[in-house]
Amino acid sequence: MVGVDTVTPQQHAAALAEFPALQRLIDLRDAGWMFLPTLDAGGTVIEVHSVRTWPGGWADALRVRYTTDARGLRTDHTGGITWQQDGTLEEIVDELITLPAPSDRHAPQLVIAQTPMLRIA
Fold first, then answer.
1. Is residue 121 part of a domain?
2. What domain count does the chain have?
3. Strand-pair category, 69-75 with 80-87
4. 120 within a domain of the structure (yes/no)
5. Which of 30, 97, 100, 35 is nearest to 64 (CA)?
6. Whether the predicted model's global pTM rises above the 0.90 cut
7. Residue spans of alpha helices (H) in 1-121
8. Residue 49 burial by CB count (10 A; 0-12/13-18/19+): exposed, middle or buried?
């Protein structure tokens, strides 16, 4: 798989020309988000996960399956979901970028759901 650092400017421009919504992921990367692609057995990206952490154990997350299938959420330090939305990649990235920092008095604080707990057997 080609890493971001090995992409030429021409490849970058060609990818954005073919998939303009990729710019939204670049916006998140430039804002400090970390990305974790999910690959199938052949090495093709089938899903992209991204996360940004905040002080105090808060985290924002993004899951993208396609430009029309994305989900964003924010969790508190206990794994409680305080904000969640489904939509297009562009809609969800716009919402995540404008979501107030967890310390802001206008940020969502009320837990609306619990994230599933990971079990290690």
1. no
2. 1
3. antiparallel
4. no
5. 35
6. no
7. 9-18, 22-30, 89-98
8. middle
Domain that includes residue 15, residue range: 4-114
Return d(Cα 61, Cα 52) in angstroms, integer.
7
**The predicted structure's pLDDT at residue 120:** 52
Other CB atoms within a 10 A radius of the CB of residue 28 amount to: 19
Contact 67, 88 (CB under 8 A): yes
Give the pLDDT confidence of 68-105 residue by residue, as tens digits.
999 999 999 999 999 999 999 999 999 999 999 999 99
**Is the predicted pLDDT of residue 4 greater than 70, yes or no?**
no
Q: Return the pLDDT at 121.
A: 52
Q: CA-based Rg of the chain, rounded to a whole angstrom?
A: 16
- Picking from 16, 31, 19, the residue whose alpha carbon sits closest to that of residue 97 is 31
